[in-house]
Amino acid sequence: MKIEQYISQLLYRYQCVTVPGFGAFLTEFQSAYLDENSHSFYPPKKMISFNPFIKNNDGLLANHLAEAEKISYEIAVNTIQNEVSHWKTKIQEFGNFSIKNIGQFSLNSEHNIVFVPTDQVNYMKESFGLSSFVSPSVKREILHEVREEEFEEAAAATPIIFIPERKRNFSPLKYAAIFALSAGIIGAAGTFGYKFYENKIAEETLLVETNVQKKVNQKIQEATFIISNPLPTVTLTVPSEKEMPYHVVAGAFRIESNAEGAYQTLLKLGFKAKRLAPNKHGLFPVLYGSYSSYSEAHQAMKDIQKLDNKDAWLLVESL
């Protein structure tokens, strides 16, 4: 049974989806951005990363698989284990394999797993319906600035022509012609005024239609898309709280601010980190995580020493 589609479904809802025995897929919000080189606009999205240290079964994937396939929780856990074994065989034999709509795994020269997420799927449900697009650059006209010297040279080169004033003639026929001409101008002005009124009405009508269209487009952009067939609600089976006396220690710090910085860094990496109260030496311990069995804690410490912190050590104490 393929479990890729169920991992994809959970990535729309949760920031961390753990595959027991393999690792955890983490999501991080990325804002919309503009690529100025290609003039491309990209909507906000969730970036996927992979943490191989988080392997404990938190019940999320198994419960969702059992609910979707109508099988028991134990069968769902066994199905996940079989699929993980198949993945590990693939990467050992071929050096790489891919999970549909999630990303590709490969081994580097040090035989560590390298994950490259896919860029074809946006797991941010708030960005549903939004896609990237390319907008051509706007070419602007560059106006030539005229210097004062060029203006004076142009003015000096322009000839000045003097037109002598003519003697006025007060002939009665001239005044009659002026009266007739005035009447014609008034009639033309009336016709021109009517045309101007019609043009003004047309311009205002076009302006109103444009504003209405803008409001309609804005409503379309702000519309809320409703998914008619949403994912079923996942019911988690939370086991009873167990004592966890085995702890993998990242370090003990004399300065509290340094301990807080290490604690926040481990949280960002996906660990279930903890900070402890100062010990009898006045040091502030920071933990990678706590475990219920010695074998589980010892295996986690070996993985962390190999891939992240060679100085990590094991603490056995009931907190």
Please outline the helices and strands.
Blueprint: H1 4-11, E1 16-19, E2 23-30, E3 33-35, E4 40-42, E5 45-51, H2 60-69, H3 73-94, E6 96-99, E7 103-107, E8 113-117, E9 133-134, H4 148-157, H5 172-221, E10 246-253, H6 256-268, E11 274-275, E12 284-291, H7 294-307, E13 313-316
Antiparallel strand pairs: 1-2, 2-5, 3-4, 4-9, 6-7, 7-8, 10-12, 10-13, 11-12
Helix pairs in contact: 2-3
Describe this entry's structure for a reader.
This protein has about 325 residues and is α+β, with helices and mostly antiparallel strands. The protein is built from seven helices and 13 strands. Strands 11-12-10-13 form a four-stranded antiparallel β-sheet. Strand 6 and strand 7 (about 105) form a beta hairpin. Helix 2 packs across helix 3. The longest helix has about 50 residues, at about 170-220. Residues about 175-180 and about 225 have low confidence and may be disordered.
What's this entry about, in short?
The protein has helices at residues 4-11, 60-69, 73-94, 148-157, 172-221, 256-268, 294-307; strands at residues 16-19, 23-30, 33-35, 40-42, 45-51, 96-99, 103-107, 113-117, 133-134, 246-253, 274-275, 284-291, 313-316.
